[in-house]
Structure formats: structure tokens, C-alpha cells
Input
Amino acid sequence: MSNKVIQWLNGELSKEEASQWQKGFILRLLSSLKRLFIMAGFGALVGLGLSLMLPQKYQAELMLAVDNDENSGWESLLGQFGLDIGGLNPGGIFEGESLVQLLGTKYMTDRTLLTEVVINNQKQVLANRLLPHTKWGNKSATKDVVFTTDRQSFTPLQDSVLMLLSRHMRNKVVAASKPDKKQSLIWVKASHQDKHFAKAFVEELVSNTGSYYVESITKKARANLNILKKEADSVETLLYSNMYRSAEAGDINVNPLHQRLRVDQNRALVDLNVTVALYGEIVKNQKLAEIGLRKQTPLIQVIERPIFPLNRNGLNWWQFMLVGAAFGASTVLWRVLQIKL
Output
């Protein structure tokens, strides 16, 4: 930029000098109008070309809340008496940032890509929907790869392509974040040129994460409950058997001179009382185990789901053209300002 321009901007020129400079600038600008329009049109065409080369991406956003409720006072009171009903989220594996990291793991991404969804009234595996939109979809070696929901039957080529798709999703498409560390709100976002894929992937990712929570966290509690149910059934059968034995022993008329015959009657009564007490304890523990299992059920509440129309990322085609035209025109204006008038 010339010294005259700097002086004019700083107000250092006199009125006569400023007027002379402005007249000269306008004359030079008018003489460059043809070149200015040509460069603006060229920039607009470049912007249009960029908009075609960079397709619009749609962003699907889903917000969920995680319940990190701590043990209440009555649970601590039961613990003092040796009673444990199990707390929510044992070990804190699904607490805070752990859930955010879980949403971005390869395991959850692979599992979601191999989920079958209904899009436009057609059942599709998400990986098959994604592959044509990637650089591997046009290669002769991978364009005919078809995925199914049965991972065990995959060929080495299918495993390799799925690994590439999973990496692509985690690096460029999906993201999970927890903006406010003090709140239990988590945002899961997916940006893709296929709006149906972006929406379906986000919803299935959260759904599969909840299923994984049930499969892993409640596994031990469910096993304990099943054991208690089997024990309750066995003790219940034994209880009924002891009841019959006690009744049969009571039906026997015992001679008062032969008290030894009351031994079997008393033994049957003792066995019955022991069985009743044992059955009561098992039923109590079974109810506590059921409460503990319910407390360990995933408490992941979806607050906002992606709904069409989805938000777009980046600029529209006409915005690309405007930016390109402005850039082209600015090059001419800059050249005019560089000329010493």
C-alpha cells in the first residue's frame, strides 16, 4: 500500500491533497472496472467449482443425559447390616469422561456399522451405506464388498475394509463430547453428506452403547440373581418335602410310654423350621438382588434426537460464489491501492 493511502487513512493529508488523491483513485478504479468484473466472475466460477468438489455435509446431533446418582442414605444404612443391593454404575466405568470415550471406541463403531437399519423403507447395513461415499468404494478390489450383520463369517478383505471404515468414522465423521464438566450432558454428532446415514448412525451408536452397558455392567448382578432363583427353587422343593414329613410324623399316635418314637417327629419339625428360615433368607436376598439389578439398568436418557431437516456444515454454493467473487475483486482493488497516485 502506498504512503498516500496510509496518510489518507491517518488523516495526515490536507483537504486539497486528499481531494486530489480521491479523484485520482476513482479515475484509476473506473479504468479498472473491466478487469474488476472479469476477476470477480472468475472468482465466482472458482467458488462454484469448489462447492461442487466439496459436497455439503449434514450434521446429526443427539444429546443424552447420564444419571450418576450416588448411593442414598438408606443404602448406606443397609450396608451397615451387611445388606448390599448394588449401586448404579459400579466401579464408575460409565461415569463422566468414560462414557464419552466409550462412544468413540473401535468396538462400538464396528458394532454400529454392522447394524441393520431401515432407510427409505429398505433394510440396509450401515457399512454398506457408507462404503460408496468413501475413496475405497470406487476401487476395484473393494467396491464389491458387501457386509452382513454376522461378523464371524467375514473374509479377511471384509475385516480390512471394515477397519478402514471404522477409522474413517472415528477420525472424520463422528464425535462425542461433554462440553460442561459439571453436568452429565453428552453430545454425539455425526457429519456426513448422506443425511440419512448420519442420523441413523448417531441413533444406533447410542442404542448400542446402552446395550453394551446392559451386557457388561449387569452381567455379574444378573448371574447372582439367577443363582439365587435356582437356590430358591431347590429350597422350596425341600420345604414342601419337610412339610409332608412333619405332617406324617404328627399323624403317628405315640404311646406315652415310648417317647423314643417322638424323635422322628421332632427331627421332622426341626428340619421344617430350618428350611423355613433358610427359604426366608434366600427370598430376601433374591428381592435385594432384583433391586440391585434394576439399579444397575442403564439410565441413559436421550434428550434430543436428530430430526429432519438436519443442519448443514459449511457454505452453500451461492455463498462459495460470493466469497470467490469478493476475493477476485479484492485483488484488483489491492492493485489499485498499490499504485502511487
Residues 3-53+317-338 form one domain. The chain has three domains: 3-53+317-338, 57-216+301-313, 221-295. The first strand starts at residue 57 and ends at 66. Confidence is low (pLDDT under 50) at residues 70-74.
